[in-house]
């Protein structure tokens, strides 16, 4: 679990920093795309919530992908 937390932590920190510096509004004003972590950080700045949401999404994606590529006979 610590490997996963170490992987996700930089994304959480970046999202919080960009929220604090209001980078998301400037991205929207410039017509740039907003990513998933940007969207999450608009709702909360709680590190635990952000980390849990990112981990949940990563784990959910891991379970879905094989079923997308499986051929049904």
What's a concise summary of this model?
This protein has 73 residues and is mainly alpha-helical.
Would you give an account of this structure?
It contains 4 helices and no strands. The chain has one domain (2-69). The longest helix has 23 residues, at 47-69. It has 73 residues and is mostly helical.
Q: Evaluate the radius of gyration.
A: 15 Å
Q: Summarize the main sheet.
A: none
- Spell the H/E element sequence: HHHH
Number of domain units: 1
**What is the helix content?**
over 70%
Looking at the structure, what is the overall shape? globular
User: What is the count of β-strands?
Assistant: 0
Structural class: mainly alpha
Number of helices: 4
Q: Beta-sheet strand percentage? A: under 5%
Mean of all residue-level pLDDT scores: 81
- Outline the low-pLDDT stretches: none
Keywords:
4 helices, 73 residues, single chain, mainly alpha, globular
Question: What's the topology here?
Answer:
Layout: H1 2-20, H2 23-29, H3 36-43, H4 47-69
Helix pairs in contact: 1-3, 1-4
């Amino acid at each position: 679990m610590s490997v996963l937390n170490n992987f996700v932590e930089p994304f959480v920190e970046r999202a919080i920093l960009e929220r604090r510096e209001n980078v998301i509004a400037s991205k929207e004003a410039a017509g740039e795309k907003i990513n998933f972590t940007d969207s999450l950080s608009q709702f909360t700045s709680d590190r635990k919530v952000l980390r849990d949401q990112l981990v949940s999404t990563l784990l959910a994606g891991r379970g879905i992908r094989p079923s997308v590529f499986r051929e049904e006979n």
